[in-house]
Amino acid sequence: MVKLVGLVPLFPLIGFLINGFFGKKLSKGLSGTIASVAVLASFVVSLLLFFDAQHLPGHKAEVSLFGWISADTLDIPFEFLIDPLSSWFLLIITGIGFLIHVYSTGYMHDDEGFQRFFTYLNLFVFFMLLLVLGNNYLIMFVGWEGVGLCSYLLIGFWFKNTDYNNAAKKAFIINRIGDLGFLLGIILIFISFGSITYGQVFEKAGIVNESVITTIALLLFIGAMGKSAQIPLYTWLPDAMAGPTPVSALIHAATMVTAGIYMIVRSNVFYSISEVAAEVVAIVGVATALFAATIGLLQNDIKKILAYSTVSQLGLMFLGLGVGAYSSSVFHVTTHAFFKALLFLGAGSVIHAMGGEQDIRKMGGLKGKIKVTFITMFIGTIAISGIPPFSGFFSKDEILAHVYEHSPVLWFFGMVTSMLTAFYMFRMLYVTFWGTFRGTHEQAHHLHESPSSMTIPLIVLAALSVIGGALGLPEFWGMPNWMHHHLDPILYRKSVSMLSHETEWMLMGLAVVAAAAIIFFAHQLFVKNRVLPEANEAKLKPWQKLIANKYYVDEFYTAIIQKPLDMIALAFHKFFEIQLIDGIVNGVGNSVKGIGSVIRLVQNGNIGMYIISMVLGIILIFLTLFIL
Amino acid sequence: MLSLFIVSGLGVLAMLAEIFKFKKYVFPIVLGGLIGALGALYMEWQTPKSYALFDNMIVFDKMALAFSGVIIVTAFFWFIFANDYFEEESNVVDHTALVLFALTGALMLTAFKNMTTLFLGVEIMSIPLYVLAASKKRYLASNEAGFKYLIMGSFASGFLLFGIALIYGATGSFDIAEIRQYLTDNAGTVPSFFIAGVVMMLVAMLFKVSAAPFHFWAPDVYQGAPTVITALMSTIVKTAAFIAILKLFMIGFSGAATVWSGVLAAVIALSLIIANFTAAVQSNVKRMLAYSSISHAAFMLMVVLANVRSNASVSGILYYSLAYSIGSIAAFTVFYNVSRNGNETVEGFNGLAKRNPLLAACMTVAMLSLAGIPVTSGFFAKYFVFTTLIGTEYKWLLILAVLTSAVGVYYYFKIIIAMYFKNAETTEPVFFETSNKLVVIITTLITLIIGFIPDVITGLFVY
After folding, report:
1. Residue to test with chain B: of A619, A623, A625, most B Cβ within 10 A
2. Can you list the alpha helix ranges (DSSP code H) found in A54-197?
3. Cβ separation B259–A597 shorter than 8 A
4. What are B33-67's pLDDT values in tens digits?
5. How far is B311 from chain A (nearest CA, A)?
6. Considering CB atoms only, which of A605, A618, A626 is closest to B203?
7. Taking the model in full, what pTM does it have?
8. Is residue A475 located within the same domain as residue A608?
9. Which of B248, B369, B239, B391 has its CA nearest to residue B317?
10. pLDDT tens digits for A570-609?
11. Domain check: are A561 and A544 in the same one?
12. What is the largest CA-CA distance in chain B?
């Protein structure tokens, strides 16, 4: 059965090839069906693999497809690895991927680039599967770069808009910084271990110098910072919302951005050995979580709110990783994939109903107009806010409990983050769905529920968001934490909670009470008192202005990195490029021509001249051979 | 061995066609005969023995068979490409016969084991070419080309003969294996007139492959001769003369390498510089291709210079000659058709991509191959030469070769740029005969296939 693992990425690849080469000739229906069925087929195989993998010896299997790179001591086979981690990620990617494909057939229906969209989307799924399936860091890197490429292509999907293209470029360039770190990490792994195959690396991790391990772990984390949008490399993700909404849901919420989490869980050996690296991960995580959550408070673009929320939630996951709660983070990746995909798709449905409007200040009172969207989004919002028994509650609580055990200070910031999350999410929900409609007359007339191809994925995801918590019920409730046991085999150091049950109950209770209080406050503010986000930026208080402008981080980067780089580039352009390099190049070219035209003169068509030159040549040879 | 008989028999048959009035059938007979010759080569290839003729004066071993294969395959495509040249002229059969006799000489050069057969091969190959170069009787340039070629060629033949005589005087033998033995037996005590003989033969053979400074005839002759004859000279003739050098120096005179390797290195360096730099300023495409062929000759000579008798070097050079011949045939075929209106300059290619996209693409592949850009066979051809030379003391030559190749890229790309980025005055499609189209497409495919899988050629035989 595990031999079939090659099929998992093969189906989306075939879908990509069909849509890529023949898309223009296919009808939209056929094109969308092919792409969706390809991902569905992968999902079915993944499901079979997942259950099969439970019975494997050592819970894992390496499947060698072909010899890939072999040079001197470097031997990298093209191998896939099926283990609890990769088989779980396969399910998330193909399962949610399929739902989002179906949703896209409705959402993108009137777009002229329909086939192109599905081509990219299938390609993305292919690379994402490669990323999690590879049995060595290089295959992961190939997938890593591949999803980056697809992300770039999809952010700039509407390439006629310059802003969107700039957003795509920004995502690509910032990711390059992270990728460089990742690549250096891989090279250092190869130098230190003589291999980049997971199994061979991890079993030797204990005997390698700890400072080397720390360096490797930090370099890999730089890669994760880029891909998973952590401080300081997070600025691309909010801009990435330029892409079509299903892309935001699939790539920039549910799957690609969690690649960094996957990578660190995969390499958990390093972070278990190097406490320094783990500490860095935790601190960057909590800082990002808090920072992004505050920005989320004052955003007015429905997708931007969700984007900052994603950055913040990813930070929470990294916080979990940093304190060694690997299975809790994977659990949160899973539930987050459910409710964040749901929220994005819901937002897409709202935008669809509003005829492209994304500003929540121009919405309002939508709850009666688009009921399915409203109810599902309501569920998603409750889930992310951490209200039991919805899925987000369990996963977030598990992470925070581990954090508390590690450091109450970090826990406090985590707690504040989750309160802020509840606030801005309900702010979005209330402003969008309650109150009176504030859009134009045409929009009001146009308001309609989305087609069933869009609402069905919403309903499925809503159901998952409700029950997803069952994957990891708290152990102190006397319930089995399935996720915890599932991932145990791949962890270097198992995390065991030392907290007393009383403390855990206390933490949980505190979280619920805080969330409920925040929601009540938001309700008072936005529903009772009908406070609306300030439309006029000039009237904002200074601290609000600071937040609304995202702390001017983009401007800061522009000032300290982009501008100086531009200036250096300009100087190089003016001096080295034009004067030096062009000078040399043109000089060489001109001298070639010059020499050529001189030599050409000898070739004057006079046969006597030719013979003389030949004879002179021969005489010269004889002279050098016999006399000199 | 059979192929040699078949080709010379075809030549005789072609002459009889005039008398017995089956002129119309000459062309199919020749093509059929060439396929037959190829089949004969294949059969002989399958048997492990060598075929010797005339008391070891001609020996068809694996190497001879392989290079004969390259020559006959090239000839086959050449005949299809050149068929309307024969139709234009009044005396079809004479020309066909002359080409076939030149081919006979070329085949002899792949198989000679004796300096008499070497000389015979060179002359049998050259004399028809003097006539063919002048075959456009009403054109002054063609007459001039033939005349120049004759004078310069006889001059070189004189050197060759004189060199052979001197060597015979020293060794008492014409057989190259015996000369090799003589050199090992008398290492260090060879008389100076033997060395003089070696140098004179080297000069004569360098003339035949048009290496600088013995290349002066080439641009004038290539430009003046009819295009199809130029194609013949720069592919088949060049390959044959090159194999003769390879056998003569790597087998016969290998022991005296100290004498000739310095000269050869200087000649290669000079050829690389002169050929590439002059080609860069040519506007006439035929002339440019002539200089390009000098540059390629210099590349092939590097293998002789490395003086390494190994499987890698011999199969590398086999690959080079095939890649170069096939690429040149494609380039000449496209050029021949593009220049039908008399415009032989690069401007003639302007806008070809719009007028005939398929052939423009094929021409691009040919140019990339000649320039040595990867995935085309030209890249691996150069790569094999470089790997052979890298183990020797002539690394400086390698650097020079790479640098001058970069200049080469310039003039090959001039044509690509003209085809794709310049606008033609007309947008009418260029007329291409179906047979010519086929030649271009098939040779392009071969260029790409052996570029993707070089093993099909390099894995052919173990030297």
Report:
1. A625
2. 84-107, 114-133, 137-155, 162-193
3. no
4. 999 999 998 888 888 777 787 778 888 888 889 99
5. 23
6. A618
7. 0.67
8. no
9. B239
10. 888 888 777 777 778 777 777 777 777 776 666 677 778 8
11. no
12. 70
Whether residues A344 and A295 share a domain: the answer is yes
Using an 8 Å Cβ cutoff, are A551 and A295 in contact? yes
Smallest Cβ–Cβ distance between B281 and the set A600, A602, A624 belongs to: A600
- Rounded to a whole number, what is the distance in angstroms from the first to the last CA of chain A? 79
Question: Is A597 part of the contact surface with chain B (CB cutoff 8 Å)?
Answer: yes
Residue A95 pLDDT: 92
Nearest beta carbon to residue A603 from set B151, B203, B216? B216
Of A548, A570, A603, which closes a domain? A548
Q: Is the peptide bond before B213 cis (omega within 30 degrees of 0)?
A: yes
> B264: Cβ–Cβ under 8 A, 6 or more apart, which residues?
B202, B249, B301, B304, B305
The last residue of one of the domains, among A135, A167, A183, is A135
Question: Residues near B42 by Cβ (< 8 Å), separated by ≥ 6?
Answer: none
Q: Are residues A577 and A481 in the same domain?
A: no
Residues A602, A473 within the same domain: no
**Under a CB-based contact definition with an 8 Å cutoff, are residues B107 and B4 in contact?**
yes
Q: Indicate yes or no: CB of B216 within 8 angstroms of CB of A589.
A: no
User: Do A600 and B213 lie within an 8 Å CB cutoff?
Assistant: no
- Residue whose entry in the numeric block shows the structure tokens 């001249």: A609
ipTM (interface predicted TM): 0.77
Q: Has residue A210 been placed in a domain? A: no
Q: Does A22 touch chain B (CB under 8 A)?
A: no
Contacts with B206 from chain A: Cβ below 8 Å? none
SS3 for A209? coil
Nearest to B100 by CA among B134, B125, B117, B80: B125
Residues contacting A294, CB < 8 A, separation 6+: A420, A547
Pick from B199, B216, B278: CB nearest A622: B199
How many folded domains does chain A comprise? 3
CA pair distance A114, A108, nearest whole angstrom: 6
Q: Is A38 a member of any domain?
A: yes
A370 inside domain: yes
The residue ranges of every structural domain in chain B are 2-460
Residues 6+ apart with CB under 8 A from B395: B389
Neighbouring residues of A397: CB distance < 8 A, sequence distance ≥ 6: A386, A474, A507, A508, A511
Grouping H, G, I as helix, E, B as strand and the rest as coil, residue A80 is: strand
Task: Assess whether pLDDT exceeds 90 at residue B120.
Answer: yes
Residues 157-176 of B with CB under 8 A from A: 159
Measured distance CA(A566)–CA(A312) in Å, rounded:
31
Residues A124 and A104 in one domain: yes
DSSP secondary structure, A281-326, as one string: HHHHHHHHHHHHHHHHTT--BHHHHHHHHHHHHHHHHHHHHHTT-H
Strand residues in B331-448 grouped as ranges (E): none
DSSP A336-355: HHHHHHHHHHHHHHHHHHTT
Residue A83 counted as domain residue: yes
Q: Could you say which of A593, A613, A625 has the minimum Cβ distance to residue B281?
A: A593
Asked whether B227 and B332 are in contact (CB, 8 A), the reply is yes
Most B-contacting residue of A603, A604, A626 (CB-CB within 10 A), to test interface = A603
Query: B322: distance to nearest CA of chain A, Å?
Result: 29
Cis omega (within 30 of 0) for bond into B128? no
What confidence tens digit (pLDDT) does each residue in A208-228 have? Answer: 888 888 999 999 999 999 998
Give the model's pLDDT for residue B390. 82
Do A560 and A544 lie in one domain? The reply is: no
A595 contacts in chain B (CB < 8 Å): 273, 277
Domain that holds residue A592: 556-627
> Is residue A352 located within the same domain as residue A475?
yes
